[in-house]
Amino acid sequence: SRNDQVVTDLKLWVRDAFDCLDENLKKLQLTLIAKAKLHSDTIMPGFTHLQSAQPVTFGHHLMAYFEMFKRDRSRIKDARSRLNECPLGAAALAGTSFPIDRHMVAKELGFDVPAANSLDSVSDRDFVLEYLSVTSICVIHLSRLAEEMILWCSKQFGFIKLSDEFSTGSSIMPQKRNPDAAELIRAKSGRVVGNLNTMLVVMKGLPLAYSKDMQEDKEPLFDTHDTLVLSLAAMIGMIGDMVVDKEKMFLAALVGHSTATDMADWLVKKHNFSFRDAHMIVGKIVKAAEARGCELKDLDLLSMRKIEPKITKVIYDILDVEASVKSKTSFGGTSPKRVKEAIKKAKIKGI
After folding, report:
1. Where are the alpha helices (DSSP H) in 172-312?
2. Which residue, 43, 72, 90, 92, is the most exposed by fewest CB within 10 angstroms?
3. What is the CA radius of gyration of the chain?
4. 53, 36 contact by CB (below 8 A)
5. Which residues are catalytic?
6. pTM score over 0.85
7. What are the phi and psi torsion angles at 199 (to 5°)?
8. What does the angle CA 44 – CA 73 – CA 131 come to, to the nearest 5 degrees?
9. CB-based contacts of 306: which residues, under 8 Å, 6+ apart?
């Protein structure tokens, strides 16, 4: 029947599409690893709420996206396994009276088993929905990375530069260099998520078995695949292309009292304060620094001791951003040592 042939053909296409995406994500992961290795000890500000929080390494930041794309590949593997049941032989909806061997056909086409229920076989588009769901999550990860690159390219940040291959000038302002490729990736995420929503709405009210509505699965599916493959290629190119300004990253990590938490931790470890009390003490010291228009590390010791007499000159070593980063040695932490371990592990197990 046309019904079981169409769904079989579509499953074969989606299976190949998953394999294509997985290979492209692997290339992106390798590109992230290569750049992270170069910057395992490059210090930058880490943000929460887009406010300076604690210093981290740029390599650590890049490896966070490596983990995101690793989960995307895991979802691809999972969804691909689930779709690998062969519908052929279900005929229109009821099966057939001819003496066919569905197990042989499934094996010949590379499926694990024949689909178990003829009604479900011809009406199932879960594999399309899963493809669109997996790709929607993936493109959101791409969009988040693109957004960060857009911020980093701005003069306000100045953390990275992209070549003319991935940026364009303004039609009227000669000083401009716009990160167009990253902006387009960010916009494409809406298109892909919209395609998922389209297919969910198509399927939501269909009775068993086949309905002509299902022919609407092709356009959002094919469009999503083409869009994501293009976006991945652009992101791979941008990560490899970007030039990092290590000095600007480091200088940015020095502002915003980013090592205030290290001071609180020191009070807890050295003088047995509860973290609640240490937090309150450091908050008062930060206010004193802000009142004087200086960073925490530049506040004089006398002013600190007026708030907490137990503070000594050792605190200036604690407030050093390099010392802060090196101290974050917990598993998964941002210390260069841990970042290098993560990169090594990723090469062995993550790809």
Report:
1. 180-203, 218-241, 246-253, 260-271, 275-291, 301-307
2. 92
3. 27
4. no
5. 49, 170
6. yes
7. -70, -35
8. 120
9. none
